[in-house]
Amino acid sequence: MAARMVAARLKEKGHKAFFAGGCVRDMLLGRPISDYDIATSAKPKDVQKLFRRTLKVGVQFGIVIAIVDGYQIEIATFRSDGQYLDGRRPENVIFSSPEEDAARRDFTINGLFYDPQEQQLFDYVGGQEDLWRGQIRAIGEAKARILEDHLRLLRAVRFSARFGFPVEEKTRLAVEEHSHLICKVSPERIKDELGKILKEPTRAQGLTPLLDFGLLKAIDMSLYADVEARRKETQSQLDLLPKKAPEPVVWAAFLGKGKLAERMLRQLKASNELREKTAAILFHAEDYADYRKLSLSKRKRLLRRKDQSDHFLYAWSLALAKDGDLRNVMAAADDRKAFGEAGDGSLFAELIVRGHDLIALGLKPGRAFKKMLQVSEDAQLEGNSDKESLIQLLKDQFADQFVG
Is the distance from CB of 179 to CB of 215 less than 8 angstroms? Predict the structure, then answer.
């Protein structure tokens, strides 16, 4: 394993080298480990000499990334943090001891070290006990940890949701008291942290502390009011979604309304793709709710959308969360299967009447032109496959366009 090789190399040269933070926590919990971070007594310049390929992305904070066997391993020198002036990062760091390094971290369960060579755990902050108790507790004074880095307000919720651990009382009170500080965090970081909460299979458990700790209220009052009004329904829907539900689907379940989703994702500087996909899911949710009342052409248009599976998943989870009535959603599923088995390509059939046909009839491109193409396609989706008949339909319906 690359991380063990890195730690062994550092120890070989006389430095302390521990696995640190989340990988130690997850190891003790028996959970899969995605990333290994190493804390060491070696200074950044010493680390750079020991490894052939390194990245100096955080060297000012004592961090060097070593690339070993294709893996990027973060190596951080034991440090204490200087003064926090922006509520996010320290102005400077002071290289120090493992004990001082553990004391600067956010929550006790993230302040553990493990020596992979000696197979020895180092716990200077009571993290192991909090793991066994099952609680999220700030290291040292909770208020101080939050004032240092305001993003820890949301991180407390994320870890609580991920592990199903309640936030310890003093930490919870500090989060509630200082929840207003979350608005000082950049929109991108708020979006990323909310996204991580929603990505968790236990995402539904994150909704209650987001609401009750005052964090959503501080982020956006109208968002808070809307989510609070549908708390039970939203929590149920988030819980119903599969563990690896697509990102736009979970954001749609969380935000609930198209205009709110559009505004909030824009405000949080989300990507255009996420914003557009989430808004589209919410915009078409009503079509699924009334599916059996739609015309055949509208049904086909709905079912041939590129992200139709995401739309269906959202509609299915929402119907179950609301009243359990799946008749409309299952009708859509039956149609999708039927149209596919028919083998006639009716969902994606090539247009019979195209723009050049209308131009040949003396019409010029414009708003009416576009509307005529849509009417023709609707008729085609309804089963009319005769070109002459479709053109006559347009002449009848748009007589004023054909004058002269």
Answer: yes
Q: Which CATH class is domain 135-219?
A: mainly alpha
First-last CA distance in the chain: 79
Q: How many CA atoms lie within 13 A of 239 on its CB side?
A: 14
Domain spans, the chain = 1-133, 135-219, 232-341, 355-402
Other Cβ atoms less than 10 A from the Cβ of 363: the count is 17
Range with the poorest average pLDDT among 116-120, 307-311, 385-389: 385-389
Question: Using a CB cutoff of 8 Å and minimum separation of 24, what contacts does 6-13 make?
Answer: 6/38, 6/51, 6/66, 6/68, 6/73, 6/75, 7/38, 7/115, 7/116, 7/117, 8/116, 8/117, 9/50, 9/51, 10/38, 10/40, 10/42, 10/47, 10/50, 10/75, 11/117, 13/42, 13/46, 13/50
Indicate the class that CATH gives domain 1-133.
alpha beta
pLDDT at 143 (0 to 100): 95
Which stretches within 230-271 are classed as H helix?
231-240, 247-255, 258-267
Residues 356 and 363: their CA atoms lie apart, in Å, by: 9
> How many residues in total does the chain contain?
404
| Integer CA distances (angstroms), 272 to 7, 275, 308, 399, in order | 41, 5, 19, 40
DSSP state, residue 51: -
DSSP state letters, 139-201 = SS-HHHHHHH-TTHHHHHHHHHHHHTPPBPHHHHHHHHHTGGGGGGS-HHHHHHHHHHHHHST
pLDDT in tens, 213-268: 999 999 999 999 999 999 999 999 999 999 999 999 999 999 999 999 999 999 99
- Using only the alpha carbons of the chain, give its radius of gyration: 28
| 80, amino acid identity | S
On the 0-12 / 13-18 / 19+ scale of CB atoms within 10 A, 132 is: exposed
